[in-house]
Amino acid sequence: MVNENKILEEEKISKLLLKFSVPCIMGLLISAFYNIVDQIFIGNSTLGYLGNAATGVSFPVICIANAFAWCVGDGAASYLSICAGRKDTDSAHKSVGTGITVTLLISIVLMLICEIAAVPLMNLFGASDQTLGLSVTYFRIVAAFFPFYLLLNVMNSMIRADGSPAFAMKAMVMGAIINIILDPIFIFLLKWGIAGAAWATAIGQVVSFVMCAVYFFKPKSFKLKKSSFIPNITILSKMINLGAATFITQISIVAVTLVSNMTLARYGALSKYGPDIPISVFSIQTKVYTIVLNIVTGIVLGGQPIFGYNYGAKRMDRVREAYKIVLRATLITGITATIIFQLWPKVVVGIFGSGNGLYQEFAVKTFRIYLSLMTVTCLVKMTAVFFQSIGKSKYAVMASVIRDIICFTPLAIILPAILEGSESGTGINGILYAAPISDLVAIAVIFVLTISFFRKLNKEIVIEEQKELAS
């Protein structure tokens, strides 16, 4: 642990970020890949876009489950890094054990609720008469494995914070490989259809979970005891505070998806596209959007141990330097994604299966309008994770809610109603324009938060320099 701390405090920042961020990015991409692989195989099967619409309907509920897991996992990860900077080894093992126990209890409760209420949940999130049966079949299988899935996500975050991002990535890679192998076997060879996709996903998650569980027998920075797994309310409170931004981000995705699906179904039915084409396209858009945000999140999470440790150790100069590098990487990612979505939307959508002319038309329109300011969305996400990493929960929460909850959700309801009543447009276009408008408002707020924080940080750097000169 001493050597690991020394590296975080003295190693070149760019080298550290490369070491930690690449495995984080890969791990998060692979996590997102689970649902994407399902959609690719389903979209290219006889189920077509209806199958993709069915998996898209279940996605928000899976996000709700993830919200709890990542709140605990990211909160524990941030807390571990800060504890390392403060040399507080006793709190470290208690935070890990508490996180695992609490997640297990939450996952069991969520599993039972989802199994009992599968049909009303799928109806709530936009299932049509054509997709309800498919949605329920897929969702019930996936929900049955929530204890494995949620614990996997929590432990993966903890493993990254423990200084082993490469191992965390390997665990996710192995599960993804299993999923990719089993998808065509279950869907096409055994003809299990959408149930086959769900079983392939679940089995892959169990494999990743087992690998992560094995890691905790020999972690780097803490040693688990039986007493570690007795929830510590004080530490849990701190972890939840640190992970609140992640929780809100995931719930925001649910709110966006719920409002989007309801609006798309309502105004889609009044348009030439019908209700199922818009929901299917948005399901694909959400998955692609998630890939880009996971790259950005991976970059920032790679910096989490650096941010957290050095902030705890009062090395504010290193915090500022790491932030600048992460900011540049985020801008490059966002700009690259925007160019791809603007120039080649049909190529991206085509990966998930073909559709009729109306399907293609709405897909192109969605990617070019809805994702037009993807770079701004990336900056908002990066800022929220950064503030979470250094324990600035209030800043992190504000960065998390400004785009999706405060701006997008009301706009997605208001704009379609306005456009439906106008002569120049249809209601379904309103939800597409709600995204870039929300991005513009969010970036203004993010700018103010960031400037405010770094002004305070610069003052802290000056104070630390004066203390060093005085000593």
From TrEMBL:
Any one GO molecular function term: antiporter activity
Pfam families: MatE (PF01554)
Subcellular location, principal: membrane
Matches recorded under PANTHER family: MULTIDRUG EXPORT PROTEIN MEPA (PTHR43823:SF3), SPORULATION PROTEIN YKVU (PTHR43823)
Domain of life from the UniProt record: Bacteria
Membrane topology per record: Multi-pass membrane protein
Record key words, sorted: Antibiotic resistance, Cell membrane, Membrane, Transmembrane, Transmembrane helix, Transport
Record has Transport as a keyword: yes
Compartment(s) where it occurs, according to its Swiss-Prot or TrEMBL record: Cell membrane
Official protein name in the record: Multidrug export protein MepA
Family: Belongs to the multi antimicrobial extrusion (MATE) (TC 2.A.66.1) family. MepA subfamily.
Residues annotated as transmembrane: 16-37, 57-84, 96-118, 138-159, 171-190, 196-218, 239-268, 288-313, 325-344, 369-389, 401-419, 431-454
Organism expressing this protein natively: Intestinibacter bartlettii CAG:1329
